[in-house]
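Re-run requested by the PI after the first attempt was lost when the workstation crashed. Everything re-entered from the original request form. Ligand of interest: beta-D-glucopyranose.
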Amino acid sequence: MKAEAYERSHNRIVRHFAPECTLFLKTDGRFPLKAPCPVALFGSGARQTIRGGTGSGEVNSRASVSIERGLMKAGFTITSSPWLEAYAELLAAARKKWMARLRKDHPGIKGMMQAFGSIMPEPEYNLPLNYPGEAAIYVLSRISGEGSDRSCVKGDVCLTDTEVRDILALNARFDRFMLVLNTGGPVDLSPVRDVGNILLLSQLGAMTGLIFADILLGRANPGGKLATTWPAAATVDPVGDFGDPDKTHYREGIYVGYRYYDSTGIKPLWPFGFGLSYTSFSVAALETHVSGRLVSVLAKVSNTGSYAGKEVVQLYVSVPQGRLDQPYQSLAAFAKTPELAPGADCRVWLSFDMADLASYDTENEAWILEKGSYRLRLGNASDHTQVTADLILEETVTVRKAKTVLGDCGFKDWQPNIAQRAAALTLKGQAQPGPAPVSLTVPAAAFVTENVFYDREEDVDASVHDLTDEELCKLNIGAFSKGVLSFIGNASQRVAGAAGNFTRDLEKKGFPCLVTADGPAGLRLSRQYVDGKNGPETIGNDSLALFSDFLPGPARALTKLAMRRPGKGQVVHNQYCTMIPIGTALAQSFNTDGVAALGDLVGDEMERFHVDFWLAPALNIHRSILCGRNFEYYSEDPLVSGKMAAAITRGVQAHAGRAVTLKHFAANNQENNRYSSNSLVSERAMREIYLKGFGICVREARPRAVMTSYNLLNGRHTSEHKGLISDILRSEFGFEGIVMTDWIIHIAMDGGAYPPPDSVKIAAAGGDVVMPGSQQDFDNLLKGLKEGTISRSRLEKNATRMYRMAGILKNRK
Ligand code: BGC
């Protein structure tokens, strides 16, 4: 069936923008190709191109274009079809065997929940490569997803022996050879680093193959930069631990990603902010201004190569070492240029508020800027900058008073030792020479200490007073029904395939039933449905597809039988949604306007399909490259994460009555035992790294909802954490929306090292709604209310927020 006009137009927007999400790690000038020609195409991602990761971030679009098909559509002849055939067969057989073992090792529904998301490492194979072509392309793919982490084994983070052998052989045999990375995160490319052309294509949604063809032919120029450091396997997670099922110690504190590499002198394979394209640029600082707390740098960017392209200008600051230790540098601002023709130049301003460089002083419960010299570095990669100015702050200032509320992690954060810092400085000493930096004074008087008002009086809406105890509890618990769909992110009774909705029982009393649907790579809905007696019914397998592979044999057969086919005379409705690039790829664009335009596209589809809350953006920090859900998340850097989340929020919420849901709040940086793992993190690292992006997005774009995470933080469930929800999110960041939990699944959570979140404690902490909702959560809350472990007044205050949000969303103009 032909795509509808909105699908075509949305896919065009994605296709036009996505090259900006890609970048070359290596180029030797032998690409682009001038015209379609015969190519020898190999690799796991050539035919089985990965559009995005697995789990709730999946999108049911109408069709997808693989790299093989994309190239054929563009007029290329694929000479290696027998290889692609043979590989597909080999892969299917390997997967069948692997799945059977997985099901055997993880029996029952609980086993399914554990096995869900497990990723099969790429198999080794032996297939001839002797196909002709004017160029050869090897597409290396890796998938990852919800429920399972990556690991440094061959076929996952490390290359298989086959991949290394074939990539090196093709590189040696062909004059024009490109290694294409169809991965959501880094793979250790140490053994193939000498390959002349390495494109990080990433996972760009349903149009990935067409976008690649555009790049290969030079119709589009990669314009992205790494938003996360690209390490070798040997340097992954050197300090803190990762993946422990019960307790993960974030010992590295604030030294995450480039903050670690830059401060220790350890070189990754490619640094944060790095990226090449078909052209080259020069970046120079023209002026630096200080006006009160606001610092602005004017940069001149020139296209010095022979293709049109866009550049990402980056401004880093080295904060002086004082009482608080500081990383070598942190990103303070970035800007994307417009497209520049060869030889053209432009000027861009980069600005930041000095207060945003403040560090959290846990002992004194305050954000401070210590006196000293703040060094500004401008460039187009974190290792390619020039010192442009020293900003002198003559006195230490307290920017904001706060409260230390996140609990004790039980250790002192790691810091680089003197030798490591010295090694880092020696390495950095080799940075580019440039004109002498200017020295400017920032007046201490520009900073007036802000005070936060905690525990503000919250009012109660009159309409909430009249609710019975049962009704009040219903508002605080998502709509629940019996059956499997309620716990696998398919619980909505209003929109087919949406993740959930709030209660339906109070509509007559003016509380509309609001619908939530997943993201972040677009809207996750069922492709087709019919109107059933109790609401929409999915046609086909979309609602169970995520899980059915992992089910034991008989249950799998049942799900096939249960697949809904349209009855006689029933009208089939379509809900084809557009798949946009994964979060990591969006961040690589460093283009906030472009990302906002994709948010606009999602908002448009929310209107079309009657979805109120999008369960996105997801902005957890890439703490380790091993996190299985990193592809959904943006970056290792909180500024990039916050700015991207704010951009997409603006795009979605420009549609009246449509809301985003920032997730997962917070310190949700691993998937292993995700329902019951305890993240141990210091107050300073939480605030400067893991919460900062949420704060940026809340302040800049006023998102209407936040989802708490599954993990615990310093021994307490984040959904039950008053410090996180009420003190930091609401009082400090000024969040005015509603807080929902992640999808609590008792069947999977019971029996873990910690008891599952408790609906009474959630409501007491200021959480508004337990999702997707269950009879158990409801009974527990009602019991709490009757027995006095939660007050009616607390529930009324939470209900007031729900009521007012419903009013805002339903009053669509
Ligand atoms: C995921 C969330 C998602 C929810 C609803 C959970 O398992 O962690 O990101 O929004 O399911 O599908």
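Saved to the shared folder this time. The longest helix spans residues 81-105.
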